[in-house]
Amino acid sequence: MDTEGLWAEPVGEDTARVANVPFLQNGVAEGDVVRYKTDGEGVHWATDRAAASGNVTVRVLPARSGPLGPSAGAVHERFAPYGIGGESYSAEFPLVALTVPADAPLGEIKALLERGEADGWWHWELGCATEAWNAA
């Protein structure tokens, strides 16, 4: 089973707003509202996305031999001017998951991601995109 524990804030009887950036789950972003079911042990399991936030989830893995080295902090520094926050997985495997706000300059952020990959800084992938992201 492919699962990831996420923080969430209840917003309804069976819905909650995702309160952190997903590292592994595709198709969901921080701020999205998900519908959930509760099992016999009281654990909530998301079943589908009830409302999209407009935010985008991007995962960045710094290239160990690249100019930034394996530094999650260096990745965060590159995106901080855009107001982009996120979380780092570990020092050994410095995967960075970023939440790109819906109102961020998406074209500039995409250009930075692509330039960073071309220059050997990192590898990146989308975890959750929006129409606005795809059009930027």
Please describe what this structure looks like.
The N and C termini lie far apart (34 Å). The chain has 136 residues and is an alpha+beta fold. The model has no long low-confidence stretch (mean pLDDT 94). The strands form two sheets. The chain has a four-stranded antiparallel beta sheet, with no helix packed on it. A four-stranded antiparallel beta sheet has the order 6-7-5-8, with helices on one face. The chain contains three helices and eight strands. It folds into two domains: 44 residues, no CATH class; 80 residues, Alpha-Beta Plaits. Strand 1 and strand 2 form a beta hairpin.
What key phrases describe this protein's structure?
globular; 136 residues; Alpha-Beta Plaits; 2 domains; single chain; alpha+beta; 4-stranded antiparallel β-sheet; 8 strands
Give the beta-strand count.
8
Structural class: alpha+beta
User: What's the tally of helices?
Assistant: 3
Low-confidence stretches: none
Order of helices and strands: EEEEEHEEHEH
- The CATH topology of the largest domain is Alpha-Beta Plaits
Quickly count the domains: 2
Provide a short characterization of the protein structure.
The chain is 19% helix and 32% strand.
How do the strands and helices of this protein lay out in sequence?
Layout lengths: L7 E3 L4 E4 L14 E6 L5 E8 L4 E7 L9 H8 L5 E4 L7 E5 L5 H13 L3 E7 L2 H5 L1
Antiparallel strand pairs: 1-2, 2-3, 3-4, 5-7, 5-8, 6-7
